[in-house]
Amino acid sequence: MTELPFPAEEERPAPLGRRVMAAVAFAGTARLVVQVTSWLMTLVVIRLLTPADYGLMGLVTLFTGFVAMFNELGMGAALVQARRVTGTLLAELFGLVLLLQILFGLLILVAAAPVADFFGEPRLVPMLQVQSLQFLFYGFAVVPDALLMRRLDFQRKSLVETVAALLASGATLSLAFAGFGVWALIDGVLIGAATRALGLTWITRFLPMPRLRLSGLGGLVRFGGLLTAERLLWFGYTRFDAMIIGKRFGPVLLGDYTVAMTLASLPLDKLGPVLTQVSFPAFAEVQERPGEATAHLLKAVRLLSLLFFPLLFGLAAVASDAVPLLLGAQWTASVVPLTLISLVMPLRMINLVIPSYLKGLGHPGASLLTIGVACLILPAALLVGSRWGLAGIGAAWLFSYPVFFVASLSIAARVTPLRIAPVLAAILRPALAASLMLLLLWLAQSTLLAPLAPGLRLPLAIAFGIACYAVAILLLDRSGCRELLGLLRHRAIA
User: Fold this and answer.
1) What is the DSSP letter of 132?
2) For residue 132, is it left (φ>0), alpha (ψ between -120 and 50) or beta?
3) CA atoms of 336 and 346, how far apart (whole Å)
4) pTM assigned to the model
5) Which long-range contacts (C-beta less than 8 Å, at least 24 apart) are formed by 83-87?
6) What angle do CA 257, 262, 267 make, to 5 degrees?
7) Can you tell me the distance from the alpha carbon of 368 to that of 380, in angstroms, rounded to the nearest whole number?
8) Which residue from 416, 433, 436, 419 is spatially nearest to 484, judged by alpha carbons?
9) Closest to 337 (Cα-Cα) out of 411, 269, 261
10) Residues 183-209: tens digit of each pLDDT
11) Contact by Cβ (8 Å): 426, 405
């Protein structure tokens, strides 16, 4: 069918703020439930597999992730931002996206052998060939996913993604127990992608006959082209570290680093999509009222700072006990990079909403410029840091990302009402409270808790850190705590 699977734009019944809160609450709750479950499975999988397994998977995703930057030319995001959508336009968009996925899947099939030769790993050939199937599944998911985001319908979207994530995690765990090694990771990705595509297609009832005429897609292609360029640059600086380690040090150290980055990025990877998926269409809806959008952005920065500075600083503090205790002694090389990367990860979490803010207000060029600046600053620092191994890579993230963060705020300030000082003020007090917690926690671990066994020291350290942050944040940012509690109370009443 080519009719719109949703009511017309004018029929949206609820105000934006209420719909955003409902979307964040439902999507966040669903994602929290699924991630607690899937990450318990993941911890078991990490214990069953080896650093070499994760290193090989890192090399596979390095190439498939690069291709995925182009796979739909930003058409999904362009559809979310578009003012008007017709059934004909959706059928043409579906035809374009499906054709692109087939072409990029074939590209990975052809390039598998040259990529394996580049890294000196012949085992990559069949892995890449099997992973090429995921692009076919993407072709059926892009448009339904964008339609749900456009409507802020995160209840049904989250339901599908919850089921897909649980099936993927369960399959990975079962295959790891059965001794499939790295193939447990490969097959888990495919099962998750297939489930998600089937579920999104089913709930949106979107499966039209694809059309290859592109006459009505000019505006979407232009917007999507800028987003594709941005994604390509983003991939370049976020995967540059893996490429350096894989090329210079091999799959074992890459596996250690991959696990460190995975753990440090847990909130970014698992909760971050909720922020970007909700914030982009929300900012797009108020694009003609930039002052209101800026106020929402600052509120988001305050709340993210309150939550993620203590969480990630706490992870840095307990990494030396948590890694060998939870993952096994074979992962001790991950401790140092995990500690260093965790300290800068709150800024990466906060920075997620700035591109959504810029693109939602109709400034994709400014968002692209921001990523271009990142590609100048971060890879250079990572290249220098790689001289000192994994510790140097972690230190490069720690010292270079704050520079990029301030630069991204400066770019946003040129085209929007956003100013740097209010953003830094929103971050300052939670960051100070978390820093105080970190120092007290390190001091307690080296004195009072030092004689204890790791199995007892870790939970006591976590409890002590929570208490330290609670006291510090109440002393330093009581208004922020009231704002967070008021938000939670409002949602509970609603």
Assistant:
1) T
2) alpha
3) 17
4) 0.68
5) 84/9, 85/4, 85/150, 86/4, 86/216, 87/1, 87/2, 87/3, 87/4, 87/208
6) 145
7) 19
8) 433
9) 261
10) 999 999 999 999 999 999 998 888 877
11) no
